[in-house]
């Protein structure tokens, strides 16, 4: 009787969470969100723009929504809930 372990193939995983493009996309989403937050407060700091408060708030809300959508899509892609390749 031999006391030898059977030859096994190397373990393979389909974990793609370490791919660089996910982190680049998340960084872009964070930057877009931060830009939206800063745009929201521009009329508070520059008093000459007080008449455009609604415009700045709308632009800021759209930027934050776009950033949130990108971030959620990326995170769900990392978790494997995205489209199958």
Description:
The chain is mostly helical. The protein has one domain (20-79). The protein contains three helices and no strands. The longest helix has 27 residues, at 53-79. The mean pLDDT is 87.
Short description:
The chain is mainly alpha-helical. It has helices at 20-40, 42-45, 53-79.
Question: Count of helices?
Answer: 3
- By DSSP, the count of extended strands is 0
Task: List low-pLDDT spans.
Answer: none
Judged by helices, strands and strand pairing, the structural class is mainly alpha
- How many individual domains? 1
Rg on CA atoms, Å: 23 Å
Specify the helix fraction band. 55-70%
How would you spell out the order of helices and strands? HHH
Q: Roughly what is the average pLDDT, rounded to an integer?
A: 87
Using the alpha-carbon principal axes, give the shape: rod-shaped
Describe the largest sheet. none
**What amount of the residues lies in strands?**
under 5%
Distance linking N and C termini:
46 Å
List keywords for this structure.
85 residues; mainly alpha
Blueprint of the fold:
Elements: H1 20-40, H2 42-45, H3 53-79
